[in-house]
Amino acid sequence: MPFLQASIQSTSFATEPGPELLSGGHSMPDLTLRRRLDGGYTVGLSGFGKLHLAPMGMMQARPFWPTFVKRRAKLRFHLGSSFFTGPDSLHRWGADGPSPFERIRVLDPKPDAALLRRGLAEMAKAYPGLAGLRIAHAWGGMVDCTPDAIPVIGPVLSRPGVYISAGHTGHGFGIGPAAGRLAADLIRGDAPSVDPRPFRYERMIDGTDLGSMGMM
Q1: How many Cβ atoms are within 10 Å of 142's Cβ, its own excluded?
Q2: What span, in angstroms and rounded, lies between the C-alpha atoms of 137 and 141?
Q3: Domain boundary among 112, 130, 145
Q4: Which domain holds residue 33?
Q5: Suppose 115 and one of 11, 21, 136, 181 were both cysteines; which one would form an S-S bond, judging by CB atoms 3.0 to 4.6 Å apart?
Q6: Same domain for 132 and 45?
Q7: Residues 199, 109: one domain?
Q8: Is the pLDDT of residue 33 over 90?
Q9: Are residues 153 and 164 both part of a single domain?
Q10: Contact between residue 74 and residue 10 where contact means Cβ atoms under 8 Å apart
């Protein structure tokens, strides 16, 4: 069952408490800032990340090409053991042995030190009053991306009983409750809370022109 999805390793961090120069959140082309209840700021680098190279990703490169061209300047590349033995490799496994999904149960990559330095610099550039703030804690994560940056939410018509909610392209926290509601509606057979057609799985395999990035 083919599924067009690429994973980008992303990095974010939270600062120590600092002056309240903005309330709520502020999104810029290269940076997002959000004031925290503890007086610090949550900082994310918009579109920056590390692309883990893998055979399946290379085989699916064509649908991702327009997105790749737009994001190329913000991406770094990584070639590791997952190229040979990860879920996106050409490695095969049997039912009597551990699969890649069992060997790697949790995706918890370390924060990218270069992106942490860049984030501090970009924050100080945008808000000089925040210059000198230190990082309180940082984290990394894998962002699941589709070619058009729109998630897949719904049934797989060729596999009755199989439903997918994936490819949220970094918007899981923002649209998570709504995506969960739509998935639940479709699984239960209730009237969907929103039009599910833009999120259908079949657009990945039926020749639909995915166009340019949607939400990203």
Answers
A1: 15
A2: 14
A3: 145
A4: 1-145
A5: 11
A6: yes
A7: no
A8: yes
A9: yes
A10: no
Same domain, 124 and 207: no
25 and 68 within one domain: yes
- Summarize pLDDT for 75-114 with one digit per residue, the tens: 988 888 778 877 788 877 788 888 877 877 777 889 999 9
| pLDDT at 15 exceeding the cut of 70 | yes
Residue 69 has pLDDT above 90, yes or no: no
Provide, rounded to the nearest whole percent, the portion of the chain with pLDDT above 70: 94
User: Are residue 36 and residue 80 in the same domain, yes or no?
Assistant: yes
Rounded CA separation 56/61 (Å): 9
> Of 103, 119, 145, which one is at a domain's C-terminal end?
145
DSSP string, 106-146: ---PPP-HHHHHHHHHHHHHH-GGGTTPPEEEEEEEEEEE-
Higher per-residue confidence, 214 vs 105: 105
Tally of domains within the chain: 2
Of the candidates 143, 175, 120, 136, the one whose C-alpha atom is nearest the C-alpha of residue 49 is 143
Residues 6+ apart with CB under 8 A from 192: 182, 185, 186
Residue with token string 């699941």: 144
Q: Please write the tens of the pLDDT for every residue from 121-180.
A: 999 999 999 999 999 999 998 888 888 888 999 999 999 999 999 888 776 556 778 889
